[in-house]
Design goal:
This protein is 53% helix and 16% strand. The protein has helices at residues 5-53, 62-75, 81-93, 106-113, 118-131, 135-143, 146-151, 156-165, 195-204, 206-213, 259-276, 295-302, 321-332; strands spanning 180-181, 217-228, 231-241, 246-256, 285-292, 308-315.
Length: 335
Amino acid sequence: MQLSKKKKYEQLLASIGIILEQGRKHAYQTVNTILVKTYWEIGKTITSYEQNNKESAGYGSKLFETIAKDIRFQYGKGFSRSNVIYMRLLYLKYPKSQTLSDQLSWSHYIELLSREDDLERTFYEKQCILEKWSVRELQRQINSALFHRIALSKDKRGVLELSKKGHIIQTEQDIVKDPYILEFLKIPEHALYSEKELEQKIIDNLQMFLLELGKGFTFVGRQYRISLGNKHFFTDLVFYNRILRCFVLIDLKIGEVTHNDIGQMNLYLNYFKEEENSNGDNDPIGIILGSEKDHLMVKYALGGLSNKLFVSKYKLYLPNKDELEERLRKILKPK
């Protein structure tokens, strides 16, 4: 059956639209790459000037303010003192321009350069590229101390690998965090709330919750019904991880996780393994999120279980970075 003239024309418009979108995206990336390289060249030129003229270029130096003022006068807006500082810092932290990524904007680099620790900055750079974070998403992950939360579960060698390559998901342990930071729910720290209210808050902020879960997660459903004879159970949240090719079940608990909660999640996992898995699916993973966690009880309750089951805490506020940095320094301390 031949297509009508109108249908053919609609297909033509759609094709033109696709070409335009691709062209605009490519143009934006090209302009962005040129902009970052230009700022790198400016940073290199400033550094060379300092070295040749023995200028002191601490953050309190008037050199940056003078450069910004004079460049603004000649070339217009866009050259603040802080921008000039970051241009110089870009060159100092990335002395080889080839190491700059064309996937990251100048705004990305400003956020990255605000990280003084090289390991931390390199991790966020790699992760930003791997997961294609927007600037806003990068800011959120930095503020939630993602690097420290993942790094503290590793030894010194693991921390160095994390910084060098980013967070690569290979096993079920790689997708589990402890704690999870849910500050985006905007629940006051000492507020009274129910599990149902917590679940609804997560659904209302699903995009941010997916960002906190990490790469590869897709939402399947809430209050997922499990029927065993005449009895019905409901898993709070069900996701699927495309990288590990498995369901991820999450149960939310107000207060401390109990051994009964662990037994219930184990039941859910056995059900999913038998009734919900399709060909090619790996065994499901269960995560129980509670506001409190008794490590000794969890250790014995999980002992002997064959299922992939984890218990983690969640926090409704951003972590104390000073404490996390101190704990990380102990891991990296030479022996």
